[in-house]
Amino acid sequence: MTRLPGAAHEYPFQILERHLDGFGHVNNATYLEIFEEARWDLITRGGFGLEQVRERMIGPVVLAVDMRFHREAVNRERVVIKTRCLEYRGKVGRLEQVMERADGLPSCTAVFTFGLFDLRARRLLRPTPEWLKAVGLAP
Questions:
Q1: CA-CA to 13 of 20 to 30 Å: which in 88, 101, 104, 108?
Q2: How many helices (H) and strands (E) does the chain have?
Q3: CA 66 to the chain's CA centroid
Q4: What is the pLDDT of residue 5?
C-alpha cells in the first residue's frame, strides 16, 4: 500500500463521466489533469496561485513524470489526491501525488520532477522562500 507519511495536502475529488475512457475507467491522460488540479490547489492555498504567477512572471513547470497505475478509478467514485513535496535540490524538486480510493488503496501514484520557471528569461530559478512555502517545504 502506498501512503504518504507526514502531512500531505489532501484534495477530495469525484470521478465523473467525462473522466472515463472506452473501458469505463479513468483515462491515463486524465490522471495528469486531475493531479495538476490538485497541485494548483496546493500552491494556491500556499499563497502562490495564478495571480501571483502572473504578477511575478515566475511559476511551476513540470520537467518529468513517472506514473504507476495500481487499481481502476471508476465512475462516481470519490477519491482523495494526496500531495507532498519529497525534496528540492538546487533548482529541481520532486513531488509525489497519490490518488487514493475510499478503501485507502491507491489507484495511481505519480512522482513529478518540477521547478520554478522564470517566464521572462525562460529558465529555471532557485526556489524562493514563498515558493518553498507554497509546495509545503517551509512554514
A1: 88
A2: 3, 6
A3: 12
A4: 43
- The set of cell numbers assigned to 7 is 502531512
Which domain range does residue 62 map to?
9-134
> Rounded to the nearest 5 degrees, what angle is found at the Cα of 84, between the Cα atoms of 43 and 132?
50
- Site of grid cell 521572462: 120
Alpha helices in 1-139 (DSSP H): 28-45, 50-56, 129-134
Task: Return averaged pLDDT per consecutive 10 residues of the chain, 139 residues in all.
Answer: 58 96 93 98 96 97 98 95 95 97 96 98 97 90
User: 37 near 73, Cβ under 8 Å?
Assistant: no
Torsion from C-alpha of 24, 27, 31, 36, nearest 10 degrees:
-120
CATH of the domain at 66: 3.10.129.10
Is position 46 within any domain?
A: yes
In the chain, the number of structural domains is 1
59 is a domain residue: yes
| Contact (CB, 8 A) for 67 and 28 | yes
